[in-house]
Amino acid sequence: MAQYENVVAVILGGGAGSRLFPLTKDRAKPAVPLGGKYRLIDVPISNCINSSVTQIFVLTQYNSASLNRHISRTYRFSSFSTGFVEVLAAEQRRDSPDWFQGTADAVRQTLPHIQDWRVNTVLILSGDHLYRMDYRQFLKRHFDTNADVTISVIPANTQDAQGFGLLKTSGDGRIVEFKEKPTGSQLEAMRVDTTQFGLTETESQNRPFLASMGIYIFNYERLVELLNEDPNRFDFGGEIIPAAIEKLNVQAHLFNNYWEDIGTIRAFYQANLDLASPLPKFDFFNDADPIYTRSRYLPPSKVHNSDIDNSMISEGCILNGVYARNSIIGLRSRIDEGARIENSIIMGADFFESFEEIQQNVHRAKPHVGIGANSVVRRAIIDKNARIGKNVRLINQHNVETRDGKGGCYFIREGIIIVPKNATIQDGTEI
Fold first, then answer.
1. Does the predicted model carry a pTM greater than 0.85?
2. What are phi and psi of 76, to 5 degrees?
3. Angle 230-235-238 (CA atoms, 0-180°, nearest 5)?
4. Phi, psi for 159 (deg, rounded to 5)
5. pLDDT in tens, 241-294
6. The listed CATH number (3.90.550.10, 3.40.50.2300, 3.40.50.1970, 3.40.50.300) that belongs to domain 2-275
7. Residue 246 backbone dihedrals phi, psi, to 5 degrees
């Protein structure tokens, strides 16, 4: 048990998140809302807590204010515990004048803060993956094989494998080769007999590749050596891992459950809507391994004269005469009579508008926070605090793939309409 006491988790959350724009316009990628009430960062932090890994650093760089605020309000351990969740923002120092240049560089620049914890093992995680993992099994594999580095891998089929870094292993699970997104003959050369990791013959034939999940365990001293021997190695996947495979004991740990990289708008959209399905791939209804988030002490939601199916409704909502199908309705959502919500993500609001404020909005012809009467929202993402007026139609009738609305009031990405945080869509608008 003692070997687990000096494990520190480092969650990488510093990227600009350009593929998730405009959801990352005013927030860091790990702070993007998930499932109506959570944030992406809650997933890896909860996995750590449920795995008894409670010394956690979150590395940030871009638009980190809301992420910092969420973490400081949510994760407070007992004063009798050694646990913490601490944000390490990119900083400029005399010996390190540049911002983070990549995943490995982010860890390199924060080593002076990490080393204070007498750490011997570093668990490196991503802040934008959706999965539930017991890291104790991951750590056990690392210690049992006396590894310098252990990489969590997921079996992949031929189509999916082309989008990942692939690993090839020897008979004992040691990684002997790494290729980044190979195709053609290089892809075929990376086939592995995955039955050695416990897959059946049929599963192995269907998924004969080992894809890196982008999460790693490093012996701390080996990590320092790898980062310091070449300061121009900026990324783990493309530079640090291949260098480690050449000379160190690098092992694979197979993870054979649901895992989704939700770094794109389409992946984010699909993963969220799946949460509302009758049998979701990722289940928040799990007492044994809960996903933690900020306690807000909101009232129960009120639903009047509505027709809602295959949807998730968060706390503090007021739904009056609403038709909703296959949708996520987030915290404090206010949706008026006759509105239709289909295959959409409504992120909700950070505050309640009072009755007096709503009356003032009416006098100024300004929509209230939420969705107005008789509006139709189909295949869309409505970010927090957005104001959607009456008789609005957000349906992308002409199946546009990409568009930037005038004044940034809406965007279309991969055919999905996105209304950004705090935006206003006036009465009668059609998109």
1. yes
2. -125, 110
3. 95
4. -65, -45
5. 999 999 999 999 999 999 998 889 999 999 999 999 999 999 999 888 999 999
6. 3.90.550.10
7. -65, -30
